[in-house]
TrEMBL record:
The active site is a redox-active disulfide bond. The gene is LOC115994747. This is Dihydrolipoyl dehydrogenase. Binds 1 FAD per subunit. FAD binds at residues 93, 157, 186-188, 356, 362-365. NAD(+) binds at residues 223-230, 246, 315. SUPFAM superfamilies: FAD/NAD(P)-binding domain, FAD/NAD-linked reductases, dimerisation (C-terminal) domain. It is found in: Mitochondrion. Signal peptide: none annotated. Pfam families: Pyr_redox_2, Pyr_redox_dim.
Length: 509
């Protein structure tokens, strides 16, 4: 039975288009992928060597080992888990949760009849809980490496040939790690802006914003993207006055327009101020604070904005510094991303790249999927990642999650479509817990009812979105979701009702 289902799954995977990914993804299609190449340089110790121990790299290393490949992973930061675990997803979610609890205690508990005389913030304790979560998880990956027999090489890796990585070890030494297949998973780094020097004290990147020792009175955030809105939420809830300066006309420019408008209104209600279509042209920091010179994006009169701390969150760049790409001739695009084909192979045979360092969404779960698919290809199996179906979540309150296309994208494709919506105001669980802001929006092809995109704004949108992600992956119709029995009372019922609204009528509104 198990064998039969495995065979069916293999046959199914093979029928799927492995390169059905979106516009800017995996464009490079060199004719170089060779899985039976001859190896010129010396005797190889490893089948796979991964440079970078982030979600892309460590997952690739574990999966490679599970597939029976002798694997080593080189990491320079002294801890596994990459940006995500050390200075990204995990510490930010820890602080988002802690600050949300404080905010709820101040503003919502009394509505539920829970009263107390005063609530205080103990910032060092809050930071310590975040640090504990990070260190437990990074140590957990070391444990997984041991369990799966992945060699963990600490140090800075540099490609010296397509099958050799020279590693500067923490004790100042040097060692060469050899591999038949090398996977570059070096991730991304903060993108600084011209004329702005990040000191991680008053002019901070996300890394500094995760470790402030005092709550700033005024925090100016440059860039209304994922990091700006999440870290702005953290410090805003703890008492900072937040002003977000955004170059574009909208916050999170990639989000569905209708959802984005509601999201912005919600953040404004929480006290976040937005200066859209505005650029920062200069930053002057003195002992007393920081002065930012602003200008309308289209040009015009300058104004001055004062802050105690400025967060620079205007995007991230692929991290390839000192990696030796030039030495072995790995091709990159204009903004330094490594170009790969649909098997994650670069133009240099035997050298692959995955995660934030290649085109595609800069997300941890996408990096992990890349990693698994890449080593499956290396092992002669079939890997699969569809960048059109990677969910995205902004972990504010409410959260905003989406998968598939926005209404703007569907319109641009010229596809005839239907929209089904359901507000949480009409969802019994949301009303019961007094947390009913937001909605579910489903876009489906008019002719076939096939789901094209799902957008959710809700307290737990990041969990709810996976029902939609599965539906999209299986090319489901909105009616498929609507006819699945959903437990009551749950927030998930709003997804079912929005699906009913897409092809027919919802019940509860
Ligand atoms: C504040 C913040 C919050 C985020 N929150 C989320 C979130 O909630 N959800 C989400 O999906 N994504 C989130 N992200 C994005 C996520 O962190 C990245 O998409 C993800 O970490 C990319 O994984 P990666 O393995 O490609 O690279 P990375 O995680 O950047 O890992 C690369 C690793 O390679 C190492 N390295 C680099 N060069 C070398 C070298 N030459 N030798 C040895 N080692 C090297 C680096 O030290 C690093 O540890 C967040 C990012 C930030 C900054
Ligand atoms: N919840 C999550 O999944 C999560 C959380 C944090 C970070 N991330 C990832 O990390 C990456 C980096 O996050 P980010 O928020 O820095 O980037 P982002 O791309 O999400 O947002 C950057 C914002 O800065 C704006 N901007 C760019 N230059 C500007 C300028 N000069 N002045 C004013 N605004 C400017 C852009 O228009 C954009 O809105 C993202 O790609 C995201 O995928 C994900």
């Amino acid at each position: 039975m198990a064998m039969a289902s495995l065979a069916r799954r293999k046959a199914y995977l093979l029928t799927r288009n492995l390169s059905n990914s979106s516009s800017d993804v995996l464009k490079y299609s060199p004719t170089v992928t060779s899985f039976s190449r001859g190896f010129a340089s010396g005797s190889e110790e490893n089948d796979v060597v991964v440079i970078g121990g982030g979600p892309g790299g460590y997952v690739a290393a574990i999966k490679a080992a599970q597939l029976g490949l002798k694997t080593a992973c080189i990491e320079k930061r002294g801890a596994l888990g990459g940006t995500c675990l050390n200075v990204g997803c995990i510490p930010s979610k820890a602080l988002l949760h802690s600050s949300h609890m404080y905010h709820e205690a101040q503003h919502s508990f009394a509505n539920h009849g829970v009263k107390f005389s005063s609530v205080e913030i103990d910032l060092p304790a809050m930071m310590a809980q975040k640090d504990k979560a990070v260190s437990n998880l990074t140590r957990g990956i070391e444990g997984l490496f041991k369990k799966n027999k992945v060699s963990y090489v600490k140090g800075y890796g540099k490609l010296i040939s397509p099958s050799e990585v020279s590693v500067e070890t923490p004790d100042g030494g040097n060692t060469v790690v050899k591999g038949k297949h090398i996977i570059i998973a070096t991730g991304s780094d903060v993108k600084s802006l011209p004329g702005i020097t990040i000191d991680e004290k008053r002019i901070v990147s996300s890394t500094g914003a995760l470790a402030l020792t005092e709550i700033p009175k005024k925090l100016v955030v440059i860039g209304a993207g994922y990091i700006g809105l999440e870290m702005g939420s953290v410090w805003g809830r703890l008492g900072s006055e937040i002003t977000v300066v955004e170059f574009a006309a909208d916050i999170v420019p990639t989000m569905d327009g209708e959802i984005r408008k509601q999201f912005q209104r919600s953040l404004e209600k929480q006290g976040m101020k937005f200066m859209l279509k505005t650029k920062v042209v200069g930053v002057d920091s003195s002992a007393d604070g920081v002065k930012l010179t602003l200008e309308p994006a289209a040009g015009g009169d300058q104004t001055i904005l004062e802050a105690d701390v400025v967060l620079v969150s205007a995007g991230r760049s692929p991290y390839t510094g000192g990696l030796g790409l030039d030495k072995i001739g790995v091709e990159t695009d204009k903004i330094g991303r490594i170009l790969v084909n649909e098997r994650f192979s670069t133009n240099v045979p035997g050298v692959y790249a995955i995660g934030d360092v290649i085109p595609g969404p800069m997300l941890a779960h996408k990096a992990e999927e890349d990693g698994v698919a890449c080593v499956e290809f290396i092992a002669g199996k079939t890997g699969h990642v569809d960048y059109d179906k990677v969910p995205g979540v902004v972990y504010t309150h409410p959260e905003v999650a989406s998968v598939g296309k926005t209404e703007e994208q569907v319109k641009a494709l010229g596809v005839e479509y239907r929209v089904g919506k359901f507000p949480f105001m009409a969802n019994s669980r949301a009303k019961a817990i007094d947390n009913a802001e937001g909605l579910v929006k489903i876009l489906a092809e008019k002719e076939t009812d096939k789901i094209l995109g799902v957008h959710i704004m809700a307290p737990n949108a990041g969990e709810l979105i996976h029902e939609a992600a599965i539906a999209l992956q299986y090319d489901a119709a909105s009616e498929d979701i609507a006819r699945v029995c959903h437990a009551h009372p749950t927030m998930s019922e709003a997804v079912k009702e929005a699906a009913m609204a897409t092809y027919d009528k919802p019940i509860h509104i």
